[in-house]
Specification:
With 455 residues, the protein is α/β, with parallel strands linked by helices. It contains 12 helices and 21 strands. A 9-stranded mixed β-sheet has the order 6-5-7-8-4-9-10-11-12. It has a 4-stranded mixed β-sheet with strand order 13-14-16-15. It has a 3-stranded antiparallel β-sheet with strand order 2-1-3, with no helix packed on it. Bound molecules: thymidine-5'-diphosphate and magnesium ion.
Length: 455
């Protein structure tokens, strides 16, 4: 009997499947994202399932742990985000806007891995071999362990992988891959999904680590790699302003390590350079003795990162004051300004406020609250808080300052970078006790912290 084709609808944002078309996706509530796709009767999906020959239950303690099996990429920041290196047989999705540096990062990783004796295959569906060569020439010398292939047909690719048996494969990008057994054009939801399923099966059965590049587009015209997140072992997102030189690699899912670990890179003439001390990097160019700027400390994964919170508060020339934020949560800023107005009687109601985290970091941690509140008041009063002061702490609705996690680590990082005063929640200050490198000022309310900004 001929295989029957079925029509289903997929949301191009989240991959939600539905039997009929809808204007709004019931899962992610995005509008006009449902696209029609023809799917097979599941034969392809069945084949794509990871196969162990005969499944047999095993005792937990008998499973060998291969921490030493991890292969270091030689790029410290990438290893950190991966949780210590590449795990054999794992699938890693590297997502990010086009042009952010995904291909560059992976080619650099390939270079290091090849130099360590790994057998690599870089499969590109986007660039010609010449283009890759041109890029590679900027990055340095490559050893012969790396081989390149321009191919988009997954049938061919799977044949080559079975024959060549490389250790690590890079697929650049999943949106260009094409699986004959599935209908739809490359980049469509069903193609992306099925292609990944085939790669997953190859990865697990042959023990090959596969890096998949996926573009994220805001328009949702190309199937976003979001729908792949649950299929792969690790999801890394490459963030940053394309026009600025820093790049942040963020782990959002990791079956082999901690998430929310970040790696910081700088895009240079000859590729991506690791930034080992992001605090110094983010604080470079900080204005001296200016009002409206306060240094804060945020914990990203296991690392403390110092950053500069800037605020500009000025009289509004509109009926409704403008509040804008770059890098911090706008709702949080509105809340903090309401606390300042109500609890401290600072009249911000007629003021525009712009808050910026210098360096382009995006931070959602409430530990930044105190620094934001102090920066806003400092700008409002036009009084600098001082260059050697650092503040962190969560601010509650009644203006109380609550303790935050890992205060010791934050204080140590501040001391290391030469800060002299650290304003922190009393609860944390009491636990840390006396320190010789830095003066700790414990505050229990925003009022106490604001009082430190002298007129
Ligand atoms: P690329 O890796 O091609 O991005 P993606 O694969 O995510 O689409 O990134 C390329 C950008 O980086 C491009 O705009 C040029 C820049 N670049 C450098 O500045 N220096 C370099 O050494 C390289 C290779 C690229
Ligand atoms: Mg690319």
């Amino acid at each position: 009997m001929a295989a029957k084709k079925k029509i289903v609808f997929f949301c191009s944002e989240c991959g939600n499947e539905s039997a009929k078309w809808m204007g709004q996706c019931p899962a992610c509530h995005a509008w006009n994202t449902m696209v029609e796709q023809e799917v097979g009767t599941g034969a392809a999906a069945k084949k794509a399932r990871p196969m162990a020959e005969v499944p047999k239950p095993v005792v937990l303690s008998e499973i060998s742990l291969g921490e030493e099996d991890r292969v270091r990429t030689g790029i410290g920041e990438l290893d950190r985000v991966l949780g210590g290196g590449v795990v054999p047989g794992s699938m890693v999705l590297v997502g990010g806007d086009p042009g952010i540096g995904k291909s560059t990062l992976l080619l650099q990783a390939c270079r290091e891995l090849a130099a360590r004796g790994q057998k690599l295959l870089y499969i590109s569906g986007e660039e010609s071999l010449k283009q890759i060569r041109m890029r590679a020439d900027r990055l340095g010398v490559f050893s012969d362990g790396l081989r390149l292939l321009c191919e988009t047909d997954l049938g061919e690719i799977s044949g080559i992988l079975k024959q060549e048996h490389p250790d690590i494969v890079v697929i650049d990008s999943i949106q260009t891959m094409y699986n004959e057994e599935v209908s739809g054009t490359p980049g469509s939801v069903s193609q992306v999904r099925e292609s990944t399923a085939v790669l997953l099966q190859l990865s697990k059965s042959l023990g090959i680590s596969i890096f998949i590049v996926g573009h994220v587009t805001k328009e949702g015209t190309v199937a976003g790699p979001r729908i792949l997140e649950h299929m792969v072992d690790t999801v890394l997102y490459f963030e940053g302003d394309r026009h600025a030189s820093y790049r942040i690699l963020r782990g959002v899912k990791n079956r082999f390590g901690s998430t929310n670990e970040i790696g910081v890179f700088e895009m240079r003439q000859n590729g991506l350079e690791e930034v080992e001390n992001p605090s110094e990097y983010l604080l470079s160019g900080r204005p001296e003795n200016a009002s409206g700027t306060v240094t804060a400390c945020s914990i990203e994964g296991t690392r403390p990162i110092l950053l500069e919170v800037q605020a500009l508060v000025c009289q509004t020339s509109f009926g409704i004051p403008r509040r804008q934020s770059a890098g911090a949560d706008l709702n949080r800023i509105n809340l903090l300004m309401a606390v300042l107005e109500k609890r401290l009687g600072i009249h911000l109601g007629q003021c525009d406020a712009y808050v910026n985290i210098a360096g382009g970091m995006r931070i959602a941690e409430p530990a930044l609250d105190l620094a934001i509140a102090m920066a806003v008041v400092s700008s409002f009063l036009n009084v600098p808080v001082g260059d050697k002061l650092l503040a962190f702490g969560e601010v509650g609705l009644s203006g109380e300052v609550r303790g935050v996690s890992q205060a010791e680590v934050r204080v140590a990082e501040a001391a290391k970078l030469g800060y002299e005063i650290c304003v922190l929640p009393t609860a944390n200050a009491e636990r840390i006790g006396k320190t010789k490198d830095i003066r700790l000022i414990g505050v229990s309310s925003v009022r106490d912290a604001i009082a430190l900004i002298k007129k």
